[in-house]
Amino acid sequence: MAEVVLNDVTKSFGETVAVEGISMTIPDGAFVVLLGPTGAGKTTTLRLISGLEQLDRGEIFVGGRNVAGESPAQRDVAMVFQQYSLYPHLSVRDNLAFPLKSPILKTPADEITRKVREVAEVLQISHKLDNKATALSGGEMQRVSIGRALVRDPAIYLMDEPLSSLDAKLRTDLRVELKRIQADLGATLLYVTHDQIEAMTMATHVGVLDEGKLVQFGTPREIYETPNSLYVATRLGLPRINIVPASIFGNAPAGVTQMGLRPEHIAQGEGQEAQVKRVEHLGDQTRLHLDLQGHAITTLAIPGQQYAQGSTVKISPKNPLCFDAHGARILQGA
Amino acid sequence: MSSFSVTEPSNGQKWFAGILVVLYALITIMPLAWIMMTGFKTPPDSISYPPKVIFEPSLEGYVNLFTTRTRVGQEALDALPPPETWYEEIVRERDMVIAGPSKFGERFLNSVIIGFGSTFLSIVLGTLAAYAFSRFKIPLADDLLFFILSTRMMPPIAVAIPIFLMYRNLGLSDTHLGMILLYTAVNISLAVWLLKGFIDEIPREYEEAALIDGYTRFQAFYKVVLPQAATGIASTAIFCLIFSWNEYAFAVLLTSGTAQTAPPFIPTIIGVGGLDWPAVAAGATIFLLPVMVFTILLRKHLLRGITFGAVRK
User: Fold this and answer.
1) A49/A86 same-domain check
2) Which of chain A's residues have a Cβ under 8 Å away from the Cβ of B232?
3) What is the CATH number of domain B105-302?
4) pTM of the entire structure?
5) Are residues A56 and A176 in the same domain?
6) Which residues of B touch A (CB under 8 A)?
7) Binning pLDDT at 50, 70 and 90, where does residue B5 land?
8) Domain span at residue A178?
9) What is the C-alpha separation between A77 and B185, in angstroms, rounded?
């Protein structure tokens, strides 16, 4: 395992700039999640680190070594693709052994057997080892795919939305499993997703990407509590942060035009009247959809309190996040 | 059980389809069956009218195909010791003796060397070229592909005379190498285009995964792409083999002796000692076999579906 450093990494495809000036340090043993919508440059960043794409500008260091000009094989990275991409002509066992048999690793046969068995046990696919890769279910395929990365001991594991194609239950199970494995191995892992729950639950660090740029990098808590822009604030949090004009509650601080209200920023009982449009019971929580002078607001119900559709609730902001007209964060009291 | 289904054909439709298939099979198998039958007829039976469907089988056609014979007078015939082998016996009945083996064996072997040689070469070059066209950014790739295809646009025989002159100057006339190169040149456009289609369908993720798993580009090609392209390679090989195996015009023009293939040789049998249809039919039958066996061997690869379902699209 090693530290991976990106310095001013830039890549364009024709006219489109996919990744622009990304600089970040992935500490040894960290679980870094890159978060962003489709087309934000997450996958391109992974492919640049792995060597599947060549940099236009900038540098990448793996364990202190500049990897410019090195082939993917030489870079000592393992990658899990979004699609299962198991070798369809091989059995599960041979798929898992494939990286170990490579001319770079040339693992002895008995060690291959041992490692394959170990990984198969961890991922609970031992009973499927002799199956053809194509004879597995989607979840099993993706587990084998992850297993094919785990049999190795690379400088860094790169994972490109490995759980996105799985059903909800399997996704939750594998998420927990993946975090446990990473923690046990002390592995360095760069994980790409657009799923904020995956980011919040697994990451030690989160990087938020917007149109090829890294807009904020920090712990999940930092990103959630002190986003540096409106864009970052909307990336994390369920229900999503509510954005309302700052003037709606009167006397806004100078320069503040928009206000971001997460449920914990909304105090109920006094302030502006809002109409209850809909009440959603999710079991563990109840969501309230309110209408505040034409602005839709989603917040959480106070447990035990009854809300009738069409009734009104008084709400006021409590330490809201403030943004200027361009969406940049304005720190209160500053 | 449901009485109506959208996907299952009805019994009537199944019967109709079945009858069509059987009819088509009969029509295509008829000439083949007739040639194989003729190979086992005696020369008089083969030209009898009305044609004989039921006849006494004879190996005379095959004996005549593999031997050259001379007619001898009755006295000389009587002076000979009794025939030692069954084929001598057949020949003696026609008042002839075996003068030696015919050239059919050699010509057949030439066909095998040239046919399989050019098929192998077309597939090797075609697969590499198709892979490059499929995966790499090649300047003017579309124009190059069109150029490759354009070599197929006129009948090959249209360039026969330039090729004849060129081969004479290069010393390639009537050589195995010359014929292998020529058939490869004709086949390669087909091979590149067919194989490019097959390789295009193999997702790049496999190679990328292999590259990251520690393999070089060529190893990834060899270990991951080739096994998945097996279907395409097999069917392309069959097309290439059928062309070079059956090719007649160039073979007549460019070969006469050492490298002559079976197609120009078989008709020469007709000229020797009258119209020996059973020998011609026997030659045709034997000539058919290798392509038939080759096709049957590769048949399972012709079924698609090897890569199905491994990558979610």
Assistant:
1) yes
2) none
3) 1.10.3720.10
4) 0.79
5) yes
6) 203, 205-206, 208-216, 219, 224, 227-228, 306-312
7) low
8) 4-235
9) 43
